[in-house]
Amino acid sequence: MNIFSFLVVGLIAGWLAGKIMKGGGFGLIGNLIVGVVGAVIGGYVFDFLNISFGGFIGSVAAALVGAILLLYLIRIFKKI
């Protein structure tokens, strides 16, 4: 996946994660950044669990899981 596709997938995942995790977001720009970082995390998580989806939808799914996980962890550490 080239860098442009990676950024688009991350941005979509960040936006979706912000909608799913209501109250846990950081605004549009913050959620988009979380989505890009979450794409990396999701890729590692799916690779570790030997889960693979093909194509664009699979990439968005992995990035979405990573972004939701990252938003959840940030919410936990923000409370501490």
Task: Report what the structure shows.
This protein is mainly α and 80 residues long. The protein has one domain (3-79). 81% of the residues lie in helices and 0% in strands. It contains three helices and no strands. The radius of gyration is 12 Å and the shape is globular. The mean pLDDT is 84.
Write a concise synopsis of the structure shown.
The protein has 80 residues and is mostly helical. The protein has 3 helices and no strands.
Q: Features of this protein?
A:
80 residues; single chain; mainly alpha; globular
Helix content: over 70%
Instruction: Give the overall shape, derived from the CA principal axes.
Output: globular
Residues in β-strands, percent: under 5%
* Helix and strand element order: HHH
Give the beta-strand count.
0
Q: Which ranges are low-confidence, i.e. pLDDT below 50, for 5 or more consecutive residues?
A: none
For the termini, the CA-CA separation is: 37 Å
C-alpha Rg (nearest Å): 12 Å
Family: Belongs to the UPF0410 family.
Transmembrane segments: 28-46, 53-74
Membrane topology: Multi-pass membrane protein
Subcellular location: Cell membrane
